[in-house]
Amino acid sequence: MNYVINNTIIGDGNIGIYLCDSQYNIIIKNTITGYDIGIVLEGIPPNLIGSDNNIVSGNMISETQYGILLSIFCNKNNISSNNIINNDFGIWIAILSNSNRILNNNFIDNRVNARFVILSSRNTWDGNYWDKPRTEPYMIIGRLFYFVIPWINYDYNPAQELNDINVTQGCWLE
């Protein structure tokens, strides 16, 4: 178990925070900006060992290509109460990453707020703010494989206003 708490990570490198084959970590109250990828969780094939049961909460992630990337074999992670702002992709869930909870985040001014690909369709999206108040469910478009079989997830309860997230004074841990 690792704790990554209260850091300001500013740069022009590849990755701000990287966890590989790592479980039960807590990544909270960090500010990450200017990287290719803000936060990466990744498993290691062929062992099928994943980055599972991690908490990523109360972070400010901006000006990245990928704000949060669940790369491969990332299951049962809690991605909650983050400000994900002005990225190419807010969150990208790829390759057999399932049963993740994406809750109460603010997705603002991202080119694409969320995507999932390659058998990563069983994730829960709830209470996220998607650029503006929404009264209808918010559609997250994915692909079961990179270029074929479109698939859709929904945030059935999108936030009507910005979620109250203060990176410097706390976050939700569920």
Key phrases:
mainly beta; 174 residues; six-stranded parallel β-sheet
Summary of the model, kept short:
This protein has strands spanning 3-5, 8-10, 15-20, 26-28, 31-33, 37-42, 55-57, 60-62, 66-70, 78-80, 83-85, 89-94, 101-103, 106-108, 112-117, 124-126, 129-130, 138-143, 150-155. The two termini are 16 Å apart. It is an all-beta fold.
H/E series, N to C? Answer: EEEEEEEEEEEEEEEEEEE
Instruction: Tell me the fraction of residues in β-strands, as a range.
Output: 35-45%
**Percent helix among the residues?**
under 10%
Question: Low-confidence runs (pLDDT<50, min 5 residues)?
Answer: 169-174
- Going by helix content, strand content and strand pairing, the class is mainly beta
| Extended strand count | 19
How many separate helices? Answer: 0
> Could you say which overall geometry the principal axes of the C-alpha atoms support?
globular
CA gyration radius, whole angstroms: 15 Å
Sketch the major β-sheet.
7 strands, mixed
Supply the number of structural domains: 1
Q: What is the mean predicted local confidence, pLDDT?
A: 90
| Distance N to C terminus | 16 Å
Q: How is the largest sheet built, in terms of strand order? A: 3-6-9-12-15-18-19
